[in-house]
Amino acid sequence: MSGGNFNNTNASARPWFERLDRIDRRWIFLLMFLAVSGPILWIGVTGKTLPEAPTLAARAVFQEIDQLPAHSLVLISFDYDPASAGELQPMATSLVRQCAAKNLRMVFIALWPLGNQVAQQTIQDVIGDDYPALKEGDDFVNMGYQAGNEAVMKLLLTDFAKAFPKDSRGEATSNIPMLKDVKMVSDFPLLISVSAGYPGSKEWVQYVISAYNEKMNFVTGCTGVSAPQLYPYFPQQIAGLLGAIKGAAEYESMVNESLAVDGVATAPKYLQAQRRMGPQLVAHLLMVGLIIVGNVIFFARKRRGAA
Amino acid sequence: MTRQAKTWLVIGAVFVALLVARGMIGQGLGRVYVKRTDVTVTLPDAVVVNSAAGIGSTTDSSTQAVGASSAPPSSSSPATISWQEWKQVTPLEFIAAQKANPAQTEITLSWSRTIGLWLAAFFTLAIFSFLYADNPLYKIAESLVVGVSAAYWGVIGFWDTLVPKMFGALTPGLVKSLVQPSLVAPERLQQISMVFALILGVMMLWRLLPRGGWISAWPLAFIVGVTAGLKIVSHVESDLMAQAAATMKPLVVSVTDASGSTNMWDSWWASVANVLLVTGVICCLAYFFFSVEHKGVVGGAARVGIWYLMITFGASFGFTVMGRIALLAARVEFLFDDWLWLIDPNHFRGL
């Protein structure tokens, strides 16, 4: 398939597969746009989403959080920025929602500069709007962004307050009530990372989980690009894994089901990932179709060349 | 006028016409509303009001931050500070407020946020326009992204690394009094290590001078050495030892359910999974083992290894496609929902 060739004067004389092979690539872009926008419009108007069957890795994330006793400490690292929010924000929202509903004490950190802002926005959207009884400093705290990548992780192994000396409000770590018993990262029974790349899930495994695999569990949600690199760590080093928007949709459906109240519809902000599975389905069908067409063209040309 | 220019003109004209038509139908499109909230905070007794300077100072870092970031408090006791907060609200809330009281001013149209929304839509479309052909709008958007990113990283590097870690360690009093009142006092060891870091930093910048560029090789050597040391240990622990241990699995697995009896179906699939895993590792290793010619058993294993690798690449490609489509879906949802108001998945406008 070539681009930008509009001057096919002898196009009708060519065999069908050659005409298809020379189709302008912009038609493919247009098809992809329609494949994505059509389901978005349909789901946006009807509000219907596709059913999800959670896989083992997504179920493990839900169970790891669900099995923690109330008031357990959870360290949640926002290792992404708005560029990846389309893929990761739905799972971050659901993770915070499950933790808040379980009444876990959440400590938010960010190893990406803009992670602090997305963490703050998530706190506002979930805790601020739906769990206003949770008190900052007692039930949750945002420690903000800390520069240093792996160096911050290494520091967390020995001294939490040294890695994060104050929270995002400027309050000294030693003055935050919920952190008075926290000396190092292993004081958190569960570590959650929502990761778009480096530094992120892989580095958490390499620098923290390798050292404290027996003491703490680690669950993560990641982008589609990094998911294949992380699956080998599941389930020994990563207890639960949400791979891209599909993993987010599976997990989101589990959280929604567990927190469903009879007669009350789930808030639309907790259906983001499931809404985005509609465009995924149609766009993937288009991709599969295009790959098949490409192969048919390849074999047709080969056959003609042989004949 | 060239053919391409004519095409752009037609696309632009059709697009603007559709946009104007959309603006005249129903609720219109692309507006952001905000709600004004008046906030008043009474400062705790610990705050010492400096009436001469007009700035509250305190021993408590968080209170000081509030005082410093707000309007100067008066010298009367108890001291209070007030400000206005503007929180984004949905168009539905604006309509309800207007119905209740058409003269209300609590919820209003935010021009700055509305312009921001339209700019976001414009730049999204400008980037998408590259799919048709390279054009000046795309170039503008691309240059802006590069420029803003570079500036942002510069600011982050200065305020989040240099100021708190370097200047904060070397001159804590100055940094605390001038720019970061909440700075936590550094330890003596941290101060000494930052002197060392400063020297290395200066040596690194030496390469910009016409002579003595070799001096920058020393800090580079330090960085390479430290990074290699950190990476080797962590990779051996997490990617070699732990992964090797995770591969040593029984080929026949017996899965028991809650009653203690063996679940044949689950046992079968668990065994198949382990056999596939162990076979895959051995065959992929055989493919990358070049000391023996790939013939016979080794050749067969290497061919199976290729299949495993191809399936892995296919899965990676599938995941990448999924990720990219998710990002595209998010942008299209933004255009249809926030900007064009064609859909209302979040029930913000009561469509």
Characterize the structure shown:
The complex is a heterodimer of chains A (307) and B (351). The longest helix of chain A is centred in the C-terminal third of the chain and has 30 residues, at 277-306. Chain A has helices at residues 16-21, 25-46, 56-66, 85-101, 115-130, 150-158, 160-163, 201-212, 227-230, 244-258, 272-275, 277-306; strands spanning 73-79, 105-110, 140-145, 190-195, 217-222, 240-243. In chain A, helix 2 (25-46) runs antiparallel to helix 12 (277-306) and helix 4 (85-101) packs across helix 5 (115-130). Chain A has 307 residues and is α/β, with parallel strands linked by helices. Chain A has two domains: 16-40 and 275-306; 56-270, Rossmann fold (3-Layer(aba) Sandwich), CATH 3.40.50. Among the domains of chain B are: 31-41 and 57-71 and 79-109, no CATH class; 249-338, no CATH class. Chain B is mainly alpha-helical. Chain B has helices at 3-24, 61-69, 91-100, 111-128, 136-170, 172-178, 188-205, 217-247, 264-287, 296-339, and strands spanning 33-42, 48-50, 55-57, 80-89, 107-109. In chain B, helix 5 packs across helix 6 and helix 9 (264-287) crosses helix 10 (296-339). Classes of the chains: A alpha/beta (307), B mainly alpha (351).
Keywords summarizing the entry:
heterodimer; A: 307 residues; alpha/beta; 2 domains; 12 helices; 49% helix; disordered N terminus; B: 351 residues; mainly alpha; three-stranded antiparallel β-sheet; two-stranded antiparallel ribbon
Please provide a brief summary of the model.
Chain A is of the alpha/beta class and 307 residues long. Chain A contains twelve helices and six strands. Helices cover 49% and strands 11% of the residues of chain A.
